[in-house]
TrEMBL record:
The keyword Cell inner membrane does not apply. It comes from Mariniphaga anaerophila. Belongs to the multi antimicrobial extrusion (MATE) (TC 2.A.66.1) family. MepA subfamily. It holds the Pfam family MatE. NCBIfam families: matE (TIGR00797). This is Multidrug export protein MepA. InterPro entries: MATE_fam (IPR002528), MATE_MepA-like (IPR045070), MATE_MepA_subfamily (IPR051327), MdtK-like (IPR048279). The chain crosses the membrane at residues 15-35, 97-119, 139-160, 172-191, 197-217, 237-262, 274-295, 315-337, 357-379, 391-413, 419-439. It is found in: Cell membrane.
Amino acid sequence: MEQNKSTVALGTENVWRLLLQYAIPSVIAMTATSLYNITDSVFIGQGVGALAISGLAITFPLMNLGAAFGSLVGVGASTLMSLRLGQKDYATANRILGNVFVLNLVLGVLYSVIVLTFLDPILYFFGASKDTISYAHDYMVIISLGNIVTHMYLGLNALLRAIGEPRKAMTTTILSVVINAILTPIFIYVMNLGIRGAAIATVLAQTSMLIWQIKIFSNKNNLVHLKRDTFSLKRRIVLDSLAIGISPFSMNVAASVIVIIINQSLTQHGGDLAVGAFGIINRVIFLFVMVVLGLNQGMQPIAGYNYGARQNERVTKVLTHTIFLATGVMLVGFIVGEFFPRTVASIFTREKELIDIAVTGLRIVFISTPIIGFQMVASNFFQSIGKPGKAIYLSLTRQVLFLLPCLLIFPSLFGVKGVWMSMPTSDILASLNAGYLLFIEYRKNKISK
């Protein structure tokens, strides 16, 4: 079978070639995902207004929480899938696919019900004001109603990469972005739906691609496909998937808490436009972070398969290659943020005051980007080889042990600039921590030799 050959190649072909084969489609897909969010922000900023960008920024914690539950299932299951395919346990691989459907359905429904029930109090707690609450509310109602679709869509895309189909995963993401980019301006400008139009376009784009994903996984000629007897939850699969997925879940939850604190601090020291500036900065840095995440996704099945197959030299090679590429990507981000911040901010809004605030933030936040790629790859690496404890530790130290104290201290001393300064400070400390942990692993001969 075609997928069987793709899977075996993970343990035999040249590592550089494999990484590029898997990473390039993932990078394209993740870049498209980032452009997904950027185009929404641009259309909202230019077509609805500066306060709409601030309202959108208020929703980031809820969006991160939704992604957290999606990654809890999708990332954990895809890593487990790679490990089982490496061990040639195809029966369990098929059960993993069925269990992903059920878990995403259950978590998606629960999340949507809770969010919709307490939406306005949540948004006010996250930093919304009387001027931005309507924008945040209108956007999140529609996004929350489509949350189940989002969970399924992201989860199945992760599994497509895990079974050796990165190009199909890439195609799914790109088509989703294209559909969204076509529908968003129509709903905002032609149908005059405002920020709600952007949310509707997002849900419709993901729904169309989910239908295609289900069709792919329904093909009985594929090695891994949907079967009726695989939908019943298996305790071991659920626990193993959640144990591995708890790392990105914890990272996203911590990121949500951090964004809440950032929004509250910016509202206190700079007002609604400062929150909008963070929305712009977040979207821009997200573009480069998503490219690195694409590299990590390319690394994940290669590292997971070869670790399961005990081919440790290949595991080490894919790690070092990914670190090299990730560092190069973030160097480009550094150049953009430091030398072209006004051009970047002007893409999102024509409001001069908002642009000025965003320019200052971009220059401060992007100063540490050259080392962020290494930290991200190290965290994802431990997750990819089934060591969630170390991945969780690396994820949480950046957010909780380093960034949180900075956010509690710096703004009181430096105002809005203190918020921006907190981010590069925590990135530097987190990268040093990641380097130390990888060094310890090598000394213990758990990765090499």
